[in-house]
Structures are given as C-alpha cells and as structure tokens.
Structure to design on (141 residues):
C-alpha cells in the first residue's frame, strides 16, 4: 500500500520560515506563548480549528494536503467506501476533482510505469477521459 506520511506541524514551520513570519506575530494571532507554537511545529497533527487559523494566517490551504492524500491513497470503491457511504447521508458529497500538479504527476507516473492502464486510472480516480488525455499531451510529450 502506498502511504505518504503527513507531518502537518513541520509543514507549517517550513512555510512560516519561507514567508519570514515573526514568532511574535504568530503568538499574537493565536494568543499563546512561543513555547506552544514550538509544540505545534513538533506535532504531527492539528485540530481543525487550529489548522484553519494556520491556513488563514499563512494564506495556504493545509486541508488540501489531506484531500490530496485521500485522492492519491484512498482504497478503491467497495461496499464500505466513502463514495458509497456519502450516498446514504445528508452530508455533502464531493467529487475527487482537485487536480494539483502533484496529483497530475502521480497519475501520469502510474501510467508511464505500467502500474495502471489509462482505463484503470479513469475508473479508479474518476478522471474524465478527455482530462487524462489532455494531461498526457501536455505533460508527456
């Protein structure tokens, strides 16, 4: 099984450094001490409210990291899959349609390596046939 480890705290810390945001600004924004910020950087996970605040402060959608993970590494549909569950609930249902460069590269590598056929990619990841062929023309030639 392919699995990509997500350590959101280190990702946040990296972006803070890249953006050059001072610790005092972060402490004021969260209304906490610098030692608590350091603990967040060391934490593999963040609660959703905290992650939303980081997303706002750094103007970066950290939730998309998890969405990409679901797109790339979720199991194929089966009776217990999230796609089937969403049909039975009042919660909103979402298509897997967030095609970032990372997702496109991942998909094209599956085809290039022979791990999956184009048809398998289309069926598993619910990518429209025309979209896949546009990617192939744009990125592999």
């Amino acid at each position: 099984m392919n699995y990509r480890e997500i350590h959101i705290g280190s990702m946040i810390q990296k972006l803070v450094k890249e953006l050059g945001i001072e610790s005092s600004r972060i402490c004021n924004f969260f209304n906490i001490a610098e030692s608590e910020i350091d603990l967040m950087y060391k934490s593999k996970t963040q609660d959703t409210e905290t992650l939303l605040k980081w997303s706002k402060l750094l103007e970066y959608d950290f939730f998309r990291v998890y969405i990409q993970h679901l797109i790339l590494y979720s199991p194929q549909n089966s009776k217990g899959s999230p796609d089937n569950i969403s049909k039975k609930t009042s919660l909103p249902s979402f298509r897997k349609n967030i095609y970032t460069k990372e997702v496109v590269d991942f998909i094209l590598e599956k085809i290039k390596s022979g791990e999956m056929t184009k048809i398998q990619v289309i069926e598993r990841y619910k990518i429209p046939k025309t979209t896949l062929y546009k990617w192939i023309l744009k990125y592999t030639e």
Remarks:
- The chain has a mean pLDDT of 84.
- The chain is about 60% helix and 0% strand.
